[in-house]
Every structure is written in C-alpha cells, then in structure tokens.
Amino acid sequence: MKEIVVVGSVADNPVAEDIAHYMGQQEDYQDLISLKSFLNTEFCPRFITGPRNVGNVGDKLKGKTVIIVSTNQGTHTRNGLGMRNFLIARAAKDNGAQRVVLVEPDLYYSAQDRGPRKEHGFAGGKRTRHDYEKFDGQPFSARLYADLLKMSGVDEIITVHNHSTSVQNIFMDRFSGKFHNLRPHDLYASYIKDTDVVNDRNVVLCAPDKGALAFTRKVQQSIGYENLPVIIMDKHRMGEREISIKVSPDSDIGLADIEGKDVVVMDDMVRTGGTIVETCHKLRSANPNKIVFFVTHFYSSRECRVNLNDRVLDEIITTTTIPSILNRDVQGRLRHKMVVLLISRWISDYLLKLLDKNSPGLKEPLYSEDMSAKNPRWIGKMGPLFSDS
Questions:
Q1: Does residue 164 share a domain with residue 61?
Q2: What is the biggest distance separating any 2 CA atoms in the chain, rounded to whole angstroms?
Q3: Is there a domain that residue 387 lies in?
Q4: Residue 107, pLDDT above cutoff 60
Q5: I want to staple 13 with a disulfide (CB 3.0 to 4.6 A). Which of 8, 22, 252, 323 is the partner?
C-alpha cells in the first residue's frame, strides 16, 4: 500500500513498528518522520518522505493517508503525547496528506467524559444531581480533546474498547461517524476456545457489573456455544474504597451454579483492582475450579498490583493497548499469573480492511501471546528448566 504512511508519535514505539510492518511498510517509520524538539522544549515534527526539490515543497504527502500510532510510552505524559498528535496531524495536512487516521488504543482524556452542565455529555441515562456535582469546576475534557484533534487535521480515529457512551457519542459526532471503537470480543473468544487458559466446555462468563454486561454478552455470542451462561454481579459503592458485591437478579445463573466451573471475569479496564478482587472473593465462595480475569486496559499502579496479587484470582489476561505492561518489572509480582495478548496484528487487520474494502486482511490468529516463565501454564508447556523471559 504505497499511499499509506505509518508513523509513531514517539521514537521506538513497538506498536507503531508492528502496525507499519503488518501494513506492508518497508521503511522504518523513524526514517519517514523526524520527531525533534527545540532547545526551548517545543516539539516540531518533520516528514522526510522522498527527495527534496522545489516542485513538491508542501506536497510531499499529496494523496497519501497518514496513520499516526499513539500509545502510552515511557516517560512521555498523556499531555505531551496529545500535543504530539496535534502537531503531527497538522504537519501531515500542511504537507498535502489526503487523510489522517489516529490509532490510539487507549483513548486519552476519556475519563472526563461529561461536564457540570446539562449539555455536557450523554451518559446513557438520566444524570443525577450527584453526577453533575462530580464534575463541578472541571473541564469537559473528552469533548475538548475531540475538538482539538479535529482542528489539527485528524479525519478518523481508531481506539480499542472505550466503555463510555458519552465519549462515543462525542467522537462519532465530531468525526461524522468515522470513529472506530474496536471491541476485542472475537480475540477473547478465540483465546478461550484455542488455548488451555480455561476448559471452554466447563466455563462460565462473569460481568462484574452492569457496565461490563454488553461486552460480556458479545464474547458469549462469539464463543458460540449453546447454554453458555453469564453470571451478572451488582456493585454498590459505599465509599471511595468500599463496595459491596452481590449476584444480580438479572443473572443467567446463581452463585451455586458455578461450583466446579472455570469462571472468566471480563472488564474493559482496571485501575485499582478493588472491584475485581471483591467480585472474585464472592465467586470463590461458591468453590469454582478456576477464576481468570480478562481486561483490555491494564493500568499497572502499585495499588493495582498489590490488590490483584490476591490468591483468589488465578490468572490475568490483558492486551498491549498500554504496551508498558510487557515489561516484567511493570508486571511486578503479577508476572506469575499474567499473560499479555499482542494486538497490533488485530488492529492492522481492521486498518487494512478499512482502507481497502477488497483487502482479505491478515491470517489468523490475530494475536500473539507473551507469558512469563513464572506462569504455571508456561512451565507446563516448556518445562521447568527455562529461565524467566
């Protein structure tokens, strides 16, 4: 695809490198763009495609689609990465790019998905006075970020498993429908069926709260087995760090029905791990065989690592939307029960089909598995003589 240029917002971004490879780009993206900063710390990108001559000044990217890959990376803050997105998109458009696509698997500024006024965001239901007060005095950041991306020249956005109805409405509106929120239900279903993470014929899916139910149902459909149940939990928050968990009256099955089963808990993100651990304790009281947590975005804070190291949880499956999770030091003690699914191939498959409707895409599997030698499943496959990877 000669008319496609894939670049990263920072140097040495493994997700950008992988997507460029799967898109068939022969050149290293770092040879296509200079990501320099002036002495006064201002960022100034420069596209360096093709030879310089008077005839194509300002038109080096004429007719091309530029794909900007932006992920949490090293010491760069989200604030800094956001500004890099604006300037790279503007550089692309100011040099003739026909189309600019931002690939941001973990969409920045999604948490502030509504503001303190009635016109500030649609949360999927009637907002309470308490909900408005939560955002009092704060900016409606999600809408601002969407506006700035649009103004800078971004035409289309691809993200992964964004849970906010308000954010989805904002970005769909600002980008005239060209907002793609990829949900990895197909990947998770494939991993459940094709690996030994659980016994897929003796499994129960779990939605830890109502917000995770729609996605859990999608995984249920993708697995495709008849009579595969979902146990639905209700969460009641009693304080900043205090919650109660019980089985929802809308659940397919009761707590007693999971005895001896492998239980797969599903959610879009984890920040502190408190809710998931409480959910797993409730599930464990019914004597299941195994409890595995599938989570798309893993924020590896110290509190999160400590909470999820609880023996009540057997294994954690996450993805590379935040690629630093591949680092064993970032995983900390969780490395003995953590598996990371690399999803650049899956994203690239979607991109290829988006940009060329006749593209056959990429061959499955659309993920690869990264697992520490401390994980018992790895030891079972490879034997105990190997050292930690």
A1: yes
A2: 75
A3: no
A4: yes
A5: 8
